[in-house]
Amino acid sequence: MAPSRHQIIFIGGWEAFENEEAYLRFLEAEDYDPYVKYSNWKKWLADGLSDRFESFSPTMPAKQNAFYPAWKIWFEKLFPYLNDEKLIIIAHSLGGIFIAKYLSENAFPKRLAQLHLVAPVLDNEWLVGESIASFAFDTTKLSRLTEQSDEIHIWSSVDDPVVPCSHSERYHQAIENSILHTFDTRQHFWGQPSFVELFLEVGKVCN
């Protein structure tokens, strides 16, 4: 039997809304182009680390109209598959507030080697057309993330048109010993085919 590898859980983003009317308004206003192909740095990262890491990318329920209790149920279905090796969670956008809320309110079954919050949503401040809705949580409990992870990295770009950089800055201020990585031209970290800086941080787990 092959030896166990370290593990990574990727939690993606998408949208949440206060009610059905807001969700339908969003769908009416959203552009749709069936020919657009998006680059995926998460897949690039998983492929590049596959010799050392086993990766999980759970498809969360109703991603375009996300509901925290449903995400929580689905996320916990991964727990039986966690091994005794080091574990990393990489959470992007709405995925960032999901894991922040989860770790603030629950004890994760094992300590994390690294937690990465990429352009994470914190609250409704300056969001346009969307809401954190059921993902709202008591941000005074963010210290619990430090209690459950050896390292916490926050990644942000000042030109992000979706989640203001101020959300990442406030995460950084609230989470003791967190590390803030700020860029100028990465926007919401969409469409970039790779993420070398994050790759290098994750690779340190194996050193």
Care to describe what's here?
By secondary structure, the protein is α/β, with parallel strands linked by helices. It has a single domain (6-28, 37-206), classed as Rossmann fold (3-Layer(aba) Sandwich), CATH 3.40.50. It is 30% helix and 15% strand. It has seven helices and six strands, in the order βααβαβαβαβαβα. The protein has helices at residues 20-29, 41-48, 68-76, 94-105, 143-147, 165-174, 196-203, and strands spanning 6-11, 53-56, 87-92, 114-118, 152-157, 179-183. Strands 2-1-3-4-5-6 form a six-stranded parallel beta sheet, covered by helices on one side. α6 links the parallel β5 and β6. The longest helix is centred in the middle third of the chain and has 12 residues, at 94-105. The two termini are 24 Å apart. The relative contact order is 0.19. The mean pLDDT is 93.
Count structural domains. 1
Strand order of the largest sheet: 2-1-3-4-5-6
CATH C-level: Alpha Beta
Low-confidence stretches: none
Q: Report the mean per-residue pLDDT as an integer.
A: 93
CATH evolutionary superfamily: Alpha/Beta hydrolase fold, catalytic domain
- Rg on CA atoms, Å: 17 Å
CATH architecture heading: 3-Layer(aba) Sandwich
Q: What is the tally of helical segments?
A: 7
Q: What is the name of the CATH topology?
A: Rossmann fold
Per DSSP, what share of the residues sits in E-state strands of 2 or more residues? 15-25%
Summarize the amount of helix as a percent range: 25-40%
Number of DSSP strands?
6
Q: Could you say which overall geometry the principal axes of the C-alpha atoms support?
A: globular
